[in-house]
Amino acid sequence: MSLCHLRPPLDSDYAILASWIPDFAVSKHWAGPRLPFPFSAAVLPDLLSNANTPAIVDAGASYSLVDTTGQLCGFAQHWVLQPGAVHIGRILVSPHCRGQGYGRRLCQLLITAAVQATGAGKVTLRVYRDNQTALQLYQSLGFTEDHIHSDADMLWMYWQVPG
Q1: Which of 40, 114, 137, 159 has an alpha carbon within 20 to 30 A of 125's alpha carbon?
Q2: Which residues contact residue 137 at a Cβ distance below 8 angstroms, ignoring those fewer than 6 apart?
Q3: Residue 51 has pLDDT above 70, yes or no
């Protein structure tokens, strides 16, 4: 698992990714309520594109986490909502890889890629409060709740880039 790496998603990754999302509840936890469900793998790249979202300063990038055999193990994105901070999201690990450290590795690689791509001094994310597995992971990575932007359902979190 430690030899996993990020690469740009292939067209074939989106069909696999779509198969990991069986219902609206999983879709909502992964990508938020604005992503229509059900969706087809063919339109998923367009649905996940941040290019035409007015609130986003920089559309960012999408990544696939793959193991040494090339098997897709995860997917994630980053984008810029405000200058100086990069937002990470749409983080998802294959059902076959969960509980084995792939989520941690995906987040670590994603944070590194996002900071390198943007030069941001802060990394932000949001997570549903009832998504305890993700919440515990983000806390263990050093993310702290942003009380100003959080609400009853959603925690906004941030991590200051050292230095």
Answers
A1: 40
A2: 103, 104, 107
A3: no
Cβ 27 vs Cβ 37: under 8 Å: yes
Length of the chain measured in residues: 163
Residue at 72: amino acid letter: L
Domains in the chain, start-ordered, CATH in brackets?
5-160 (3.40.630.30)
Q: pTM for this one? A: 0.94
Instruction: Confirm if 159 and 111 have CB atoms less than 8 A apart.
Output: yes
Report the candidate in 139, 9, 138 with the shortest Cα–Cα distance to residue 76: 9
The whole-angstrom separation of Cα 128 and Cα 154 is: 4
What would the two tokens of residue 1 be? 């698992």
